Amino acid sequence: MPAPSNREDPPARPSQAERRQAHLTEVETLRAMAHPLRMQIIGSLRVDGPATSAMLARRLGTDSGQASHHLRLLARHGFVVEAPELGKGRHGRERWWKSATDSTHWTDNLDNLGPDGAAAIRALEQTAARVWDNLVDVYREQVARGEWNPAWREAAGGGDRVVRLTPARLAAMQDEIQEVIERHDLKDQPADDAETVVVLMQAYPRRAPQ
């Protein structure tokens, strides 16, 4: 899709057919994702659309040098790709970037990850928790400023549930939840009151301490 060379507004999000999932199955890719700014960059490119390093710096409250550094690292691991079809700006030097994936999943299979796998997963999950907590904090600040109407405040929220499952049932449950999310996702369908919604999913087995 062509765009003016000096375009600042993000282009339309990719269609469902173009979306892909990032499956983190190696220690190096887990480590690459385990950085708050890199995780935020990927999230912004997915949700807000393609951007230059300068645009990302404005979106995320950092400087373009930091954004450029982390974009290059993310590109090395295949998380982001250049978008030359969006032009190079008025001065011919801008580099547009887009996410190569639409969602991220990582493995808990330590047998395949080797001796450094547990530490890599722990670092990634701690980073994800920080980014997710910040997302909720921003929403709560917006609520306090009166930016969300009662319908959204009633619909949004979190919770937990404890159930008894086998590994096969847990896997099936997660697949079904993904199907429910997909069914309710409006994607590019027009709706006057539609907003971007981030759904966080976690499910882990628990044993009582001995």
Description of the molecule:
The protein is built from eight helices and four strands, in the order E-H-H-H-H-E-E-E-H-H-H-H. It has helices at 27-33, 36-47, 53-60, 64-76, 110-113, 117-144, 150-155, 167-184; strands at 21-24, 80-82, 97-99, 103-106. Helix 3 crosses helix 4. Residues 1-18 have low confidence and may be disordered. Residues 28-126 form the HTH arsR-type domain. It comes from Actinoplanes sandaracinus. This is Helix-turn-helix domain-containing protein. Residues 1-21 are annotated as: Disordered.
Topology:
Elements: E1 21-24, H1 27-33, H2 36-47, H3 53-60, H4 64-76, E2 80-82, E3 97-99, E4 103-106, H5 110-113, H6 117-144, H7 150-155, H8 167-184
Examine the secondary-structure arrangement and name the CATH architecture of the domain at 16-156: Orthogonal Bundle
Percent helix among the residues?
40-55%
Quaternary structure state of the chains depicted: single chain
Mean pLDDT, as a whole number? 87
Q: Secondary-structure element sequence?
A: EHHHHEEEHHHH
CATH class of the domain at 16-156: Mainly Alpha
InterPro entries: ArsR-like_HTH (IPR011991), HTH_ArsR_DNA-bd_dom (IPR001845), WH-like_DNA-bd_sf (IPR036388), WH_DNA-bd_sf (IPR036390)
Domain HTH arsR-type: 28-126
Region (Disordered): 1-21
Protein name: Helix-turn-helix domain-containing protein
